[in-house]
Fold Sarcosine oxidase subunit delta.
Amino acid sequence: MLTLQCPYCGVQADETELSAGGEAHLKRFGPGSGDEAFENYLFMRENPKGVHFERWRHSYGCGKWFHAARCTMTLEVFGTYKAQTTELPQDIKDKISAKRPGWSWREFQ
Ligand SMILES: [Zn+2]
């Protein structure tokens, strides 16, 4: 079972206490944006085999949204951080780089 530490209340929450919110760090496009940008925002996702950044909500705890960095192949969790964070925390970057040589943080638009 997936267990994530909520960065707000510090609880180690089982998957059953959490709600998945999809991919993290999406740039939102709305009215006035081009069709392609809006379509990409709505439908296109990374879905990588490996390091992935996701949104989770501590539904049966504090109720707050946060981000998790984990590996989709091994379910290894590299860390969690607050949802308002736009740049991946350095300690999580270092942890991922140590375990996945050659991995790099992609630039989000
Ligand atoms: Zn919490």
Summary: DSSP finds two helices and six strands in the chain. The first strand starts at residue 3 and ends at 5. The two ends are 33 Å apart (CA to CA). The helical segments are 35-43, 90-99.
